[in-house]
Amino acid sequence: MATVNRPGTADGHACGIDTAMEVIGGRWKVLILWALHEYPSRRFGELRRLLPGITEKVLASHLREMEADGVVRRVSHDEVPPRVEYSLTEDGTRLNDALEPLAAWGRDRSTGPRLGEEPS
């Protein structure tokens, strides 16, 4: 299921961040983007192992939504047994690139002083 625009503005979005959050919202989608960036062209089981704690149902649902949103590509190979691989589309790669400053902020925050602490 693709993300659905919200009412209120002509295109249903208040700003670009609103649009992006519809695509990456949820606990696992950003981590799926990371996994497909670090380990391109992965099968479902490989992705599941890269994301400890995610259920098969949630992973399948998120992959379908991300495919519908155009950030993940699903390729089904005509083989026996069937083989399906997932990778990032160009938009998925651009989205991952846009998230890199947020990742850097998170890394800095996890190693830097906490709220109320004096910097060293």
Task: Please outline what is shown here.
This protein is mostly helical.
Structural features, described:
The protein is mostly helical and 120 residues long. The protein has a single domain (16-103), classed as Arc Repressor Mutant, subunit A. Helix content is 51%, strand content 12%. The chain is globular, with a radius of gyration of 17 Å.
Query: CATH topology, anyone?
Result: Arc Repressor Mutant, subunit A
Radius of gyration: 17 Å
Q: What's the name of the CATH homologous superfamily?
A: Winged helix-like DNA-binding domain superfamily/Winged helix DNA-binding domain
Q: What is the overall silhouette?
A: globular
| CATH architecture name | Orthogonal Bundle
Overall tally of domains:
1
Which segments are poorly predicted (pLDDT under 50) over 5 or more consecutive residues?
A: none
Secondary-structure-derived class: mainly alpha
Proportion in β-strands: 5-15%
- The termini sit apart by 48 Å
Lateral arrangement of strands in the main beta sheet: 1-3-2
Q: Report the CATH C-level class.
A: Mainly Alpha
State mean pLDDT (0 to 100 scale). 86
What helical percentage do the residues reach?
40-55%
N to C succession of SSEs: HHEHHEEH
Biggest sheet layout? 3 strands, antiparallel
Counted by DSSP, the helix tally is: 5
Strand runs, count: 3
Biased composition (Basic and acidic residues): 106-120
Keywords: DNA-binding, Transcription, Transcription regulation
Domain HTH hxlR-type: 15-114
Region (Disordered): 99-120
